[in-house]
User: What shape does this take?
Amino acid sequence: MSKNKFTHETDNNETEISQPETQADIGQNDDLVAGEKEIVDDELSPPEDLNLKLQLEKENSIALTKMLQQLQADFSNYRKRNASIASDARQNGIFDAVKALLPALDAIEAAEKHITDADTLKGFEMIKRAFIDNLRSLGIEPIATVGCQYDPNLHNVVVAEEIEGVPSGQIVEEFKSGFSSPNGVVRVAMVKIAK
Assistant: This one.
């Protein structure tokens, strides 16, 4: 038994009763509390450590900001690239559709040359005008020919002959109409030029 504890026996049950602590025991407990306080004080960082932590957090923040800016730039480039791809795909689709429909316009123009009835001719001209207006709504314009100077990017020379009073290279007749858009030539015009 320790000197600070008493035992008391009752009905074969032993009970320990603690004796009040002595002044020395209380002093030891104060030392423990003070020791605990010192440990807590050691866990608090001095100002130099806080400044180092702050500097590390600033550097981390700068790195994350740069990473975010790079991601935003990459996403912006991705959007622009996809918009360009979509625009090109749309334009290619329009070109393909117009190329498929141009033979119908060629047939209308060929029929116009053989029609003698004024009312029928007027009907064909209205169909042709509506056709060309629809092409214009898609950004497709007829290429100018008769009276214009020959341009190898826009015209394909089928016949070249000397014609008095007409400057060399001037288009004098159109055999097949050509069409272009701001993005390129859909079909070159087939023409006759003066030499």
